[in-house]
Structures are given as C-alpha cells and as structure tokens.
C-alpha cells in the first residue's frame, strides 16, 4: 500500500489559494480557501482573525468570479470575526454596489474611510453611491440610510500599530491576496516627495526604453510611498515590456485596490492575461474598463482581437 499522504495545514491551503488568486484561477482559489476554512475551524487553537482573513480571501475570489451574493455572505462572516476588517468592508461594498444595494455599499465605503481616510477606492465608491442614491431616493437620500457604525479611536490605533508591524516584517507573501495597500500607514510629505522624484527617474528611463532600470526606480519609489497608484501601473507597463506577465498582474491588482476603476491597470492586466492565454480574465478586465470608458479605442481593439481567437 502506498504511504498515506499528509493532509495540508490550513496555512498551506491558504498560501496555495493566494497563489491561485494571483494568477487569476479564482475558482480553484475559492476551493482552496474553503478547504483552509474547514481545516482551521477544526483547530481548537484557532485565531478568529486568521479565520476572518480566510473568509475575506474567499470573498475576494467570489467577487472576481462575479458571485456577489456569496461574496457578501463571506464578508459578513469575516466582519463578525474581525469587526473592522478594511478589506472585507471594501469587498462587501463592491459586491453590494454590483447588486445595486447602494445604501449598504455607501455605509461600508464610509466605514472604511473612518479607518483609513487615504483609501482612494473608498472615496471613489462613496462618490458613486452618493450620485446613485441621489438619483434613486432624491435629495433626502441620507435619511433612508442604515446607521453608519462609529469606529472607536482604540480600534484605529490598534489597526495602525498592526499596520506598522506588518510593514516591517520581511514576509514575501502579503497576508491577503496580494493587496497590502490598506494596511500601510499614510506616508509623510517628505516620503511622498522622495517617491515622486524616484518615480520621475523611472519615467525618464521608460522613455529611453530601459525598462529593467525603470523597474528598480519604481521599486525604490514604492518603498517611500506604497499608495501611489501610477507607480504600480507604470511598473506594470515595464513588466509587460520585459515579459514578466504575472508581476504585471500583481501590480495591476495593487493599483485596483487603490482605485477600482483605474483604466490603465485594467488595460495592462488585460494585456498580461492575454499573453498568459487567460482569455476569460482578459475579457473580464476589458469589459470592466469599457464600463468606465465605453469608447476606449485600445480596449475595443484588444477585445475584438481576443474574441476572434476564441
């Protein structure tokens, strides 16, 4: 008889799920996160925060696959375990928005902004929901909102300390699906200026066609300011040029956490998916882009190209 294979731990299953998520295999990622949840729930020493992260990760996979109902359910579970998990709030907001539950989406975007006022995706979402609710409910739309929870100062301080701790750890794998933006403290003015100068050096190298050198400059820039969306999209362009398509996808993922409707991030991720022959993911990104810019000629052309090959 062959030796019995040792079953994987919840942490190994989570890691495998993260890898599948990064490469756009959302169905497989969902399956692995489900196995990880079952394994962790059986563990008597389980940490509620670990379980909250697994539910949030699976919610992200459901969201990517367009299964918004299941995404909301998993975010609810995650937020029961870890009340002010920013990523769960943002994912539930995005799913609620897609389901046209604009009041709930507005509440979640506003709650996320109480925790971190620098989340561009939450600012954008709040603006979109304000417009949608004004159209549907009229000028008195705020009166129909569910209550917006107040985030206690103690919670904000705890999350800020945790963020600082996470940033200093030399872990190569982000805790949740490669999206670390909301965990980083806001950079100082000095850091922002330094990051901008390094980004501009990178831009100058791109114009000369020196993409590998430009990547190094963007790497340095992001160390000073990891919240600058254009640095991620610029580095993604360089990764495309040197055929590092998975790295390009990761950068576009980061950019889209910061700005969920970023056209360059959607287009460049679509290009990377096309090169990796993931037609479905490519088409999904192009369709998302065309919702933002319906007449984007580059996206329309690439969509035509990809659909001809199907």
Automatic annotation (TrEMBL):
CC annotations in GO: cytosol; mitochondrion
Protein name, UniProt field: Translocase of outer mitochondrial membrane 34
Biological process terms in GO annotation: protein targeting to mitochondrion
An example molecular function term from Gene Ontology annotations: heat shock protein binding
Record key words, sorted: Cytoplasm, Repeat, TPR repeat
Localization, UniProt: Cytoplasm
Segments for region (Disordered): 159-191
Organism annotation: Neolamprologus brichardi (Fairy cichlid)
């Amino acid at each position: 008889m062959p030796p019995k294979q040792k079953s994987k731990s919840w942490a190994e299953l989570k890691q495998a799920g993260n890898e599948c998520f990064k490469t756009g295999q959302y169905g497989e990622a969902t399956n692995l996160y489900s196995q990880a949840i079952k394994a962790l729930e059986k563990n008597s020493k389980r940490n509620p925060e670990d379980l909250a992260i697994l539910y949030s990760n699976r919610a992200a996979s459901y969201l990517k696959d367009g299964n918004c109902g299941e995404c909301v359910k998993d975010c609810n579970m995650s937020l029961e375990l870890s009340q002010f998990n920013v990523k769960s709030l943002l994912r539930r907001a995005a799913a609620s928005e897609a389901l046209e539950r604009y009041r709930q989406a507005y509440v979640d975007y506003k709650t996320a902004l109480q925790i971190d006022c620098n989340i561009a995706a939450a600012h954008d979402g709040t603006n979109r929901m304000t417009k949608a609710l004004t159209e549907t409910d009229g000028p008195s739309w705020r009166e129909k909102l569910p209550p917006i929870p107040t985030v206690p100062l103690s919670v904000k301080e705890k999350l800020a300390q945790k963020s600082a701790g996470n940033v200093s750890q030399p872990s190569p794998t982000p805790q949740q699906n490669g999206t670390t933006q909301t965990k980083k403290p806001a950079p100082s003015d000095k850091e922002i200026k330094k990051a901008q100068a390094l980004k501009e050096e990178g831009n100058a190298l791109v114009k000369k066609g020196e993409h590998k050198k430009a990547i190094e400059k963007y790497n340095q820039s992001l160390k000073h300011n990891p919240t600058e969306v254009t640095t991620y999209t610029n580095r993604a362009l360089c990764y495309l040029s040197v055929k590092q398509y998975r790295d390009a996808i990761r950068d576009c993922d980061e950019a889209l956490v910061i700005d969920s409707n970023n056209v360059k991030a959607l287009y460049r991720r679509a290009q990377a998916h096309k090169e990796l022959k993931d037609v479905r993911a490519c088409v999904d990104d192009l369709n998302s882009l065309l919702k933002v810019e319906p007449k984007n000629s580059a996206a329309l052309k690439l969509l035509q190209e990809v659909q001809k090959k199907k």
